């Protein structure tokens, strides 16, 4: 895994997806600045102590935040209300990154689940 993998993934995206996911990357790194960056399942991922704590993906009509588990999004149900989602992906607009406080909450839940805090 490496930052170049994410750089390449982002470079292949059209605007505004590229800029929005790049901002999401910065916001995730603001929460876990020492995270190892790379790809997991062919999409950008951020690892702490070898465990994926957050991921991102671009789709035709939306972007997704991926906690890489099925328990984080249900635990943040109040904070994610208003966003389209599946059990394992939170969808957001191609031109609007998730708020920093929501990203922090989702990552904190994942870190707690993994026993990394």
Task: Tell me what the structure shows.
The chain has helices at 3-11, 17-31, 72-75, 77-80, 100-114; strands spanning 36-40, 43-48, 51-58, 63-66, 90-92. The radius of gyration is 13 Å and the shape is globular. The longest helix has 15 residues, at 17-31. A hairpin with a 2-residue loop joins β2 (43-48) and β3 (51-58). It has one domain (3-114): Alpha-Beta Complex (Aspartate Aminotransferase, domain 1). It has a five-stranded antiparallel β-sheet with strand order 1-2-3-4-5. It is built from five helices and five strands, in the order ααββββααβα. The chain is an alpha+beta fold and 117 residues long. The protein starts with a helix and ends with a helix. The mean pLDDT is 96.
Elements, N to C (H/E): HHEEEEHHEH
Task: Decide which structural class fits the backbone.
Answer: alpha+beta
What distance separates the N and C termini? 23 Å
Number of strands: 5
Described by strand count, sense and barrel closure, the largest sheet is:
5 strands, antiparallel
Percent of residues in β-strands: 15-25%
Compute the number of helices.
5
Oligomer: single chain
Low-pLDDT stretches? none
Shape: globular
In which order are the strands of the major sheet placed?
Answer: 1-2-3-4-5
- Architecture, according to CATH? Alpha-Beta Complex
How many independent structural domains? 1
Predict the CATH topology. Aspartate Aminotransferase, domain 1
What helical percentage do the residues reach? Answer: 40-55%
Mean pLDDT, to the nearest integer, reads 96
Report Rg.
13 Å
In the CATH scheme, the class would be Alpha Beta
